Amino acid sequence: MRNILDLSGKVALITGAGQGVGKQIALHFAEYNARGIIINDFNGERAEETARQISEEYKDTEVIAAQADVSNWDSVRNMVDKALDRFGTIDILVNNAGNAGGTVQDVMGMQKTFLETLPEEWEKWIGVNYYGPMYTSRAVLPSMVQNQYGKIVNIISDAGRVGEPKLVVYSGAKAGTAGFTRGLAREVSRYNITANCVALSTMNTPGVAEFTNNEEILKKVLKKYPIKRVGEPEDAANAVLFLSSDASSWITGQTYPVNGGYSFNQ
Ligand SMILES: NC(=O)c1ccc[n+]([C@@H]2O[C@H](COP(=O)([O-])OP(=O)(O)OC[C@H]3O[C@@H](n4cnc5c(N)ncnc54)[C@H](O)[C@@H]3O)[C@@H](O)[C@H]2O)c1
Questions:
Q1: Rounded mean pLDDT, 190-206
Q2: Whose CA is nearest to atom 36 of ligand 1?
Q3: Is 266 exposed, middle or buried (0-12, 13-18, 19+ CB in 10 A)?
């Protein structure tokens, strides 16, 4: 039987892949035979540990760690240059780094109404969730154009589709990434490059464990979900794998909700 999700020969850069959804995407890509995977995270130790774990499990995939802050253009350019030197190509770019900081404290820190925040607090949310995907895309695209091949998948949030109180700046940044993806998709399809988004809702990851491990909060959250569980990293990685494979070659500029039915697309 033909494996339509096979990634043999492909090299992928996944941002924020040291833990949570990004780590599971990397595991999926290795399981589906990717030739190379670059595990980016701004927490270098986390990236190294994840790269080591995946290398041990999947001997045929070359997995390397790349410490870089995706909200910093120089840091992104340097990472992409090094990755291209090593692998010669980046076929798949998954912009997964998000939230801001990657600790429970950081996520709790954003639980404020818009009026309780000041512009200086917005920067980090806009930096990682909006500038991040633009910086990495800008750095990777010249090589994708040259190779006449590319898959870009941006992880956004249903907060960006329906709006979320106390996550207002984050909602805007994620919605911005969806708009960026649509515009980019129109520009680059002539080079055989697709760009799509996956919009997640509440996921079981270290970044939001404070919420998902609290039974009282969880009960309230799940009232909004037709499917009565939070998402697992596998749920997200399944959709990302599809959009990163040639099985999705006639799909571009779209946003796919993976959200237990929290919201619906028309
Ligand atoms: N967890 C959820 O409930 C949820 C819901 C909707 C959308 N999302 C989105 O899904 C994606 C993954 O979320 P998660 O819960 O797995 O995240 P997480 O917080 O568990 O992990 C994110 C990783 O990204 C890294 N990171 C953060 N900022 C970075 C930066 N500037 N540069 C490089 N790396 C950086 C962190 O160090 C961390 O290892 C994010 O884009 C997030 O916004 C998550």
A1: 96
A2: 102
A3: exposed
| 67 lies in some domain | yes
pLDDT band at 217 (very low <50, low <70, confident <90, very high): confident
Q: How far apart are CA 257 and CA 254, in angstroms?
A: 10
Number of domains in the chain: 1
Mean pLDDT over 162-191 rounds to 96
For the sheet with 36-41, list strands across it.
Answer: 62-67, 36-41, 11-14, 92-95, 150-157, 193-200, 255-258
Residue 118 belongs to a domain: yes
Instruction: With cut-offs at 50, 70 and 90, classify the pLDDT of residue 209.
Output: confident
Report the distance separating Cα 242 and Cα 219, nearest Å.
31
170 as an active site residue: the answer is yes
Nearest-angstrom CA–CA distance, 29 and 64:
13
Spell out which residues line ligand 1, taking CB within 6 angstroms: 15-16, 18-22, 40-43, 46, 69-71, 96-100, 102, 128, 155, 157, 200-203, 205-208
Domain holding 66: CATH number?
A: 3.40.50.720
Structure confidence at residue 106 (pLDDT): 59
Q: How far is CA 173 from the centre of its chain?
A: 14
pTM for this predicted structure: 0.97
Tell me the pLDDT tens digit for each residue of 49-81: 999 999 999 999 999 999 999 999 999 999 999
User: Whose alpha carbon is nearest atom 24 of ligand 1?
Assistant: 16
Domain of 217 in residue numbering reads as 11-258
Q: How many CB atoms lie within 10 A of CB 45?
A: 11
| Residue 264 domain-assigned (yes or no) | no
> H or E segment at 20?
helix 20-31
